[in-house]
Amino acid sequence: MTRESWTTRLGFILAAVGSAVGLGNLWRFPWMTAENGGSAFLVVYLGIILLVGVPGLLAEFVIGRRSKRNPAGALYRLSNGSGSWGIVGLLGVFTALVLLSFYSVVGGWILRYVGASVTGAYFGNPGYFDAISFGAEAAAFHVAFLGLTSLIVVGGVRSGIEKATTVMTPLIVVMLAALAVWAISQSGADAGLAFYLDFDADYLQANPISVLQAAAGQALFTLSLGVGTMITYASYLGEDNSLAFDGSVIAILNTGVGVLAGLVVFPLLFALQGGLSETAAGGGPGALFVSVASAFQQVPFGQLLAVGFFGVVLLAALSSSISMLEIPVAYLVDEHDVSRRSATLGLAGLILVTGTVCALNPDLFTTVSGPVVDTLLTAGLAGFLVFAGWVLGGDALAEYGTGSGRIARALGVPWLWSIRTVLPVFLLVTLGLSLGLV
Ligand code: PFF
After folding, report:
1. Which of 41, 195, 218, 327 gives 96 a disulfide partner, CB atoms 3.0 to 4.6 angstroms apart?
2. How far apart are CA 12 and CA 436, in angstroms?
3. pLDDT per residue of the chain (438 residues) written in tens, 0 to 9
4. Is the CB of 322 under 6 A from ligand 1?
């Protein structure tokens, strides 16, 4: 059977932006910024996106477009059958399963909040989030979210993923922009903006390492790097356009959405709630839900706006979760001749179980969604960079150059050397620091 490909270049870009834009932008990013020195953090974060994120994205694109395979098959084949490199690729497939296990639980919370916004169930009930976040009902909503994800993935690359993200991604941007305009125009919003974007250089100076770690972890997560998502999505490219151009567009849009999310969340909290609640200040998993939900309680048409807000979060989460499920599906389809339908069903069955375990166990959920994921992404991306830089080497440069314009081509050699040397070292040092090894 011939392998599927995207219908258009725009389809690929929107799918990749859909993967990148998710809970990482709408939930994690604003809090990380506020907790790590405001716009001082933003500067470090933008630097890492530019110097580590974009080159990393390009390395994954090159591997994917060159091999036209899932991560495991790509590394195995491009290394002429090296089992060890195959295992590095397989680690990505495994990471995708781990990621989806916890992401789908959060997806379930969002699904529940969309419904609860319609009925107003959480209005006047600050304990709502704690009551629903873990347990049998959380597991049931995780299963529902996983069902939606599987339904799109089973449709295939063109009729499933591309069709869905072509509608969802623009909708996310437009709805978020409208919400930001509304939030900023509320009286009292300035305090929120000041809190969000306050340039706290002292904080940065006092905590350079933790800020760097936070920024690096966030950069990888938000760009969906280190798992092989971008390898898989680029493997469906039919024609050779400039990867550097597409990668830059994806990084810019993704960063823009993160900043925009902060412009919704903080003005809203300060204008309507007079600041951050206890839970929100801790930035725990409940922050977005508890604080934003209670802010909506106080405005006219609050329920309607809340449906819109959680609706955006739901679309963003779905367009990311499909990219996670697509990795193991592509692996089974490419390497083991399993039909897309059986692969999707079988994997959904597996994640149904692992996600349920996360939904029933808050401690496990916290460990998996934090340190475990950070470690897997960092190690995974370091592996992909070394592979593209040293194993593919000149071929990586040739693949990068195909379809590129003059400026992108001029940056080819510096790109190759950065993914060969500085960037893997940077990632391994960050990893060592977070594991307490360095
Ligand atoms: N980038 C997504 C987000 O910001 O929510 C999360 C993600 C998706 C991470 C896909 C990794 C991945 F492979």
Report:
1. 327
2. 39
3. 689 999 999 999 999 999 999 999 988 887 788 778 888 888 899 999 999 999 999 999 999 999 999 999 999 999 999 999 999 999 999 999 999 999 999 999 999 999 999 998 988 887 898 899 999 999 999 999 999 999 999 999 999 999 999 999 999 999 999 999 999 998 888 988 888 888 888 988 999 888 888 899 899 999 999 999 999 999 999 989 999 999 999 999 999 999 898 898 888 878 776 666 544 444 556 767 777 787 888 888 889 999 999 999 999 999 999 999 999 999 999 999 999 999 999 999 999 999 999 999 999 998 998 889 989 999 999 999 999 999 999 999 999 999 999 999 999 999 999 999 999 999 999 999 888 887
4. no
Q: How far is CA 217 from CA 8, 127, 275, in A?
A: 31, 30, 27
Backbone phi, then psi, for 60, in 5-degree steps?
Answer: -65, -40
- Other CB atoms closer than 10 Å to residue 334's CB: what's the count? 21
CB atoms inside a 10 Å sphere around CB 179: 20
Output the CA 322–ligand 1 centroid distance in Å. 10
Q: Count CB-CB contacts under 10 A for residue 195.
A: 18
Q: What are phi and psi of 123, to 5 degrees?
A: -65, 130
Nearest CA to ligand 1 atom 5: 22
Nearest CA to ligand 1 atom 7: 224
Q: Which domains does the chain have, with CATH numbers?
A: 9-435 (1.20.1740.10)
How many angstroms separate the alpha carbon of residue 19 from the centre of ligand 1? 6
Contact 32, 284 (CB under 8 A): no
CB 24, CB 221: distance < 8 Å: yes
Residue closest to 92 by CA, chosen among 387, 355, 358: 387
Token pair of 437 as six digits? 């090894």
Q: What is the 3-state secondary structure (H, E, C) of 312-348?
A: HHHHHHHHHHHHHHHHHHHHHHHHHCCCHHHHHHHHH
Would you give the distance in Å from CA 195 to the centre of its chain?
A: 25
Burial 278-300 (b: 16+ CB within 10 A, else e): ebbeebebbbbbbbbbbbbbebe
- Residue 199, phi then psi, degrees to nearest 5: -90, 95
Ligand 1: residue whose CA is nearest its atom 9: 224
Q: Which atom of ligand 1 is nearest to the CA of 20?
A: 1
Find, among 156, 151, 162, 150, the residue nearest to 13 by Cα. Answer: 162
